[in-house]
Amino acid sequence: MRCAALGFTCAMAFLTPVMVPAQTVSDDSLSARVEGKLKAAEARAAALDELQKQVEIAIRLLGTREEELDLMRLRARDLTGQLDDLERERDDVAGALQSCASERDTLADSFARLERQAGDDRRAAERTAAELGELNAAVAQLRRLRAQLEDDLASRAAALTASEAAAADRAAEADACRAALTGRDAELATERAAAAEAMATAARLADEVAVLRRQLARIETALEAAEAKDAESQLRIADLGQRLNQALAAKVEELQQYRSAFFAELKRSLADQAGVKIAGDRFVLQAEVLFPAGSADLGPSGRAELGKLAGMLLDVADRIPPKINWVMRVDGHTDNRPIRTPRFPSNWELSTARAVSVVKFLVDNGVPPTRLAATGFGAFQPIDRRDDEIAHRRTRRIEFKLTER
Known about the structure:
- The protein is of the alpha+beta class.
- The chain has 2 domains: 48-231; 272-404, CATH 3.30.1330.60.
- Helices cover 72% and strands 7% of the residues.
- The protein contains 9 helices and 5 strands; from the N terminus they run αααααββααβαβαβ.
- It has helices at residues 2-15, 25-96, 101-130, 139-174, 181-270, 287-290, 300-319, 347-364, 389-395, and strands at 276-279, 282-286, 326-333, 372-376, 397-404.
- It has a 5-stranded mixed β-sheet with strand order 1-2-5-3-4.
- A hairpin with a 2-residue loop joins β1 (276-279) and β2.
- The longest helix has 90 residues, at 181-270.
- The two termini are 30 Å apart.
């Protein structure tokens, strides 16, 4: 998309030397629409880049989550082995303490109730997990989920660490407290409940990982669709740029025909006049022909020459179609010798005032003011850069250029 925008800009820059400073209302509207589409396409590309970065972050997060789940499973298996060891130890203690059989049966009933309660809690947890909906694809929600999962994993890790420490303490106390079977059975039930909770957490985390993977698949699908749409937009922009260039080239070529006719008539009419020159698409009058030295007031000879120019300009204007929004640009130039007077503090003011005087004279002679423009360049666009009187005389000039707005 950026390459297409760069190509369009280069095409416009190539046409600029033969185009006019200002375009028609329809051209302005088309250029604005093209520019708007370019900006929208760039904004979508930036949004796609940002979304791709967020997807990559989510993928890395999923990998970290899976590693943490594997570690949790290993810890759960270790805890289960420890629980099995404790059960075998309990059987040994039960064989040595036959006198406590009645109390053990009572404790067994309590243990069964606790197991049923644990099963109810597990089913409630499963119902709660089933009620969880799919997470949003937004990156902000992924970050919140990551924080929640990290907190949950930290809690589970702390619980497992505490359980391992408690199991070690209970193993050390088993030799000294064999008569306290009730307390040991209660501890065993607590360990089983913790193990069941850890397994349920691991299952819930696995479900959340699956949900995240489905969301990533949907994001990838959306990205592919957006990329296809962006490619289509680039093709449309390129087509609009080509059509705009063709239209502008046609308008420039059409105006060039009338410009050539106008300057051909000027050349035939003023070919023998001193101080008059036709240079390409410009008609040049030396300043001495139009103005006294250091002045912006037209002299008699200057008025005569400009009167001829006004007549020919009006004649050509009648033949230019109304759809061509043409303008005659009048450019004032001075030499590099500075001027400092109350009226002209610098060469800028003198060159501009001379261009304005010419424009006002043409308006007084019937040329519509909407077809004229006055510009002062001061001494910054010399024809001859030598520092002598001949170079200064050539540089002091008024240039006329028939162009298009």
